[in-house]
Amino acid sequence: MKRVTRQTRLSPASPEVLFRNDYARLVRSLALVGGDVEEAADAVQDAFIQACVHWRRISRYNDPVGWVRRVAINRLLNRQRSMRRRARAIARLDPPKVAEDPAAGLDVMEALRRLPVRQRTAAVLRYFEGLTTAEIAAAMNVSEGAVGSHLHRARAALRRHLEVS
Amino acid sequence: MSIESQLERALADAAPPVDETGVWEQMQPRIRRAHRRHRIAVGFTAGSAVVVAAITLIGALRIPGAVRDRDPASEPAVPVTTTEAPPEKAEEPESPSINDALDVASNWVAALAAGDVDGAWELLSDHSRQSIGRDGFDAVVTELEEGFGSWANAGPTLRGVPIDVATTPTVVVILSGTRTVEGMVEESTSAIPTVHENGEWRVEWYGSVGGEFVPSMRSGSTLGFEPLSPTSAIEWVGAADGRNGVIVDGDARFDVEQTLEGEGLAHVMWAPAHPFAEGTHTLVLVVVRESGAVTVLAVPVVVEGEGS
């Protein structure tokens, strides 16, 4: 599969332009965080709907897609905190439903899934989306120091797992 | 190959393909409905401003049907029935009253339910506003409307529990009852810390989005998911540099065992002196930081088996 590279940020003229530019990448990213492409799509679509409702204000932000990402991540993680959803997730614990090649990167993906959600989110935003520490902090609503800590711990855990395997 | 390179390659390979064909078009009815709801909420808020102000003046703006766990005749009251050792300095401040803290929590929930984002923002503490920022609050307010806002028509029982915080009077308001979340009706519990500043109670709500530490359940914990035995100890992840405690059915307990785990975390355990009674109990995990910041996590639990 072609590697994802960061695009130059555009100044979206409308929510639709923002959607066309960023929807697919955001869904793929959140599918890695949450392990379910349908839930990821729901969260991202909900975030875009909110962006449409509040477009007059959001269009003035320096990083409108950052706002959408933050809302989508928040929705995804809140849903996953729901007791019932969590109980079901524990029961099924299967890999992402749609993966081009399930064998590709299996060790790393398995290790990724075992990380606490904040570490996993930070790792995906850094190594899939290529965001800076400041952008990850904004997306997760945490400090840059916390992002550094999450990434450090994620890398350490992943390194240990990969050494064992 | 470095771990970073392995991760970049593995994630790029494993991320599922997404077909966005027609998705934007399919979203249009939902977008129109969201616009309509927003206009209705804004209209409702503006149109009812005078009414709300009048209601507020007589102190009656509360969650519809809410049951106050207090005795109006002996206000202020600490609605805690202690069956074990007294809580650590769980004394109510002489002033202001706990009932006012319940009111601000009620007003905050009502504002969220009405789509009154500005009103909900105004009820937040200075800490919260500085930590979240207005754009951050706007980004999560939909979640709050669906989460805390879902209490608005649920008629929850409200209970205020004072927490000993050196910097400011603090009361954790606990909402318990049956509410509908994402279409599912369930017994539920939420907790809202409130602080008294500038002469009034405000909602101290910034932990989960402001980067402040929030207590959590341990990885693999079944707390809140599976029944406890009457003598079960409660274990969770607390803050290494904070005072960790748990509110058990309205009783604030800080007599916990705490083991540092590194990276700012602590393994916290609280064992009941007497067995839990069978039935549903409300636990609220609490962390009080040196700064005075209070963050909470509410967990309803069911106890099965014989207890006291």
Quick tags:
heterodimer, A: 165 residues, mainly alpha, globular, disordered N terminus, B: 308 residues, 4-stranded antiparallel beta sheet, 12 strands, 29% strand
Radius of gyration of chain B: 21 Å
Strand line-up across the major sheet of chain B: 1-2-3-4-5
User: What's the rounded overall pLDDT mean of chain B?
Assistant: 76
What kind of oligomer do you see? heterodimer
Helix percentage of chain A: over 70%
Structural class of chain A: mainly alpha
Query: In what range is the share of β-strand residues of chain B?
Result: 25-35%
Helix and strand content put the structural class of chain B at alpha+beta
Beta-strand proportion of chain A: under 5%
| Low-confidence residue ranges of chain B | 41-62, 70-94
How many DSSP-defined strands of chain B? 12
Terminal CA distance of chain A reads: 24 Å
Helices and strands of chain A, in order, run as: HHHHHHHHH
Order of helices and strands of chain B: HHHEHHHHEEEEHEEEEEEE
Strand segment count of chain A:
0
Provide the low-confidence segments of chain A as ranges: 1-10, 92-106
Radius of gyration of chain A using CA atoms only: 16 Å
Instruction: Supply the number of helical segments of chain B.
Output: 8
